[in-house]
Amino acid sequence: MKILALETTGKYGSAAVIDDEGRIFCASSGEEMNHLRGMILLIDEALVKAGAGKDELTHIAASAGPGSFTGIRIGVTTARTMAQMLDLPCIAVSSVEALAEGSRRKASDEGAEYIVPVINARRHQTYAAAYAADQGVKALTPALAEKQYMIEDLLEELKKMISGREGASAFFTGDGIDAYGEIIEDMMPEGSYLFADESVRYQSAEAVAAIALRKAAEGATVAYDELLPEYMRLAEAEQRLKAGTLSDRIRTAKV
């Protein structure tokens, strides 16, 4: 197998090719939110590093969200277009799970019990989860469901998980650290958490590729037109439109 994996849900875009031996060849952008202009160049660079042509690819994988709404659309659309042109199956990968996958080794080395990926969704909102930091298993084991959390609610759940357990620690990763680091420091017990350094803190196509390889082996693929964005919530404009529509209905009912 040769899988092309795309990551556009965070601020740095990347593309990677993984083969069936697990070797990963990655190309990453150093420019923030340059996905639209830079993704095709990153794909070409990753293919060159892998010594592979597009005709050798067997699957196209994309980080389908949650994350940047525009970034998700760019990645999913690019993956769908390539898969349709090359007649290949697609693989959808959660950006939350991929964040945790990218931090697995570091979290294990630090002796953490849980990996906690946190994506900033603004106004104290996050997309987050918790996984057991176990290097001995192939797939990550969820300890706290992946969903939208207020940062304070997430931390309360984590405190319950580690309460009374000596040495238990949560390894936080993702740009939620940048936005809510002070809140985490205020709410979490001293010595109960660690922050990922910037080398593993943000989304990367390498982690998307590693998960995609496992999913391909399990047959967890979809047709190009079944690869869909996972926004996890409505965009702000859609929320306002929905709220406005509801208000109109209320006013009409009163009349």
Give a description of the structure.
The protein is an alpha/beta fold and 255 residues long. The chain folds into 2 domains: 2-95 and 203-237, Nucleotidyltransferase, domain 5 (2-Layer Sandwich), CATH 3.30.420; 98-201, Nucleotidyltransferase, domain 5. It has helices spanning 35-50, 69-86, 95-109, 151-162, 176-187, 198-201, 205-217, 236-254; strands at residues 2-7, 12-19, 24-32, 59-65, 90-94, 114-122, 125-132, 141-150, 170-173, 193-195. The strands form 2 sheets. It has a 5-stranded mixed beta sheet, with helices on both faces. α3 (95-109) crosses α7 (205-217) and α4 (151-162) packs across α5. The chain is globular and about 55 Å long. It starts with a strand and ends with a helix. The model is unreliable at 235-239 (pLDDT under 50).
